[in-house]
Write a structure and sequence with these properties.
2 domains; six-stranded mixed beta sheet; 8 helices; 12 strands
Length: 295
């Protein structure tokens, strides 16, 4: 076999391997992590937020217990970086590159762990087989801190970078105000396109969540009150994110009591293992038509 033919064969094998890894889609990449709904919210709902996680001893004794800062977005859409003072940061909303988002994020984190201070992570190609976030992060609740803007970028690079500062100003100018409604729920009030919405990451697998929504909808208990409207749900990383249009006047805190009431109804409905009634099946069929998949 000629050298050219050999190189072409190796290239085909690499492309085939890449395709197999790309096709190995993981529908629920954050399953097994504490506060799964908060991981999904950082990925899909909250525009500007940070949270802190700790590394397991699987990364080595020197790094065991070291804190890493998760951020929804980092300057110039970098997937990860090391700040001038040595803090590691990982961007949750980086584009997916393979079929396993947890592996994608884990690779960016691993590169940040070996990078020097004041350095950004650069990714190329598919991540290949390796550890996932579940292997690198301690199993602890995730406490997400929402920010009113992206000013937290300012201390991530040194010296002050005009490109970063300009990107921060542009991001701030288009950011949708987003506020948590209840401390124990991944439910967020946001202002989008001149109207208010509630976006709520439910803690159950998609089918179980849809069934709970169907039971509550059939009982006319899915409403959040006068002038609110349930408009559908996003399918995101194995969970559902139902969305309501809201009247613009009340603030996020004003919605806490009614969201708590709906949460109780959904929890009761999810625990009901009886077959759906005919009205509930009709409600399920209608709600399913109002779903959209996020990838």
């Amino acid at each position: 076999m000629s050298k050219t033919a050999s190189r072409e064969r190796r290239a085909r094998n690499v492309r085939a391997q890449d395709k197999r890894e790309q096709d190995a889609f993981v529908g629920r990449p954050f399953e097994g992590l504490q506060s799964e709904t908060e991981w999904v919210a950082m990925r899909e709902v909250v525009p500007a937020a940070t949270a802190t996680v700790r590394l397991t001893d699987s990364v080595g004794e020197q790094l065991a217990g070291v804190e890493v800062t998760l951020a929804t977005v980092l300057p110039l859409t970098w997937p990860g970086l090391v700040t001038p003072d040595g803090r590691r940061m990982l961007a949750m909303q980086s584009p997916a590159r393979s079929g396993d988002l947890s592996r994608d994020l884990a690779q960016a984190l691993e590169l940040a762990l070996t990078a020097p201070p004041n350095h950004r992570v650069v990714l190329s190609g598919l991540p290949g087989r390796g550890r996932r976030l579940q292997d690198l992060i301690e199993a602890e609740p995730l406490k997400v801190r929402s920010h009113p803007n992206f000013d937290f970028w300012l201390n991530t690079v040194e010296p002050a970078d005009e490109e970063v500062t300009g990107g921060m100003k542009r991001a701030n100018s288009v950011m949708e105000p987003t506020v948590r409604v209840q401390p124990d729920l991944s439910a967020y009030w946001c202002q989008t396109g001149g109207k208010a919405q509630l976006r709520w990451v439910l803690p159950w697998q998609e089918d179980a969540a849809l069934q709970a929504l169907s039971r509550v909808y059939a009982q006319d208990q899915l409403t959040l009150g006068t002038d609110s409207r349930y408009i559908g749900a996003y399918r995101a990383h194995g969970l559902l994110i139902p969305v309501w249009d809201l009247p613009g006047e009340p603030t996020a805190a004003d919605w806490e009591p009614v969201v708590g009431r709906v949460a109780e109804a959904l929890t009761t409905a999810e625990a009901n293992d009886e077959p759906l009634t005919a009205p509930e099946r009709r409600a399920r069929d209608g709600l399913r038509l109002r779903q959209m998949t996020l990838r």
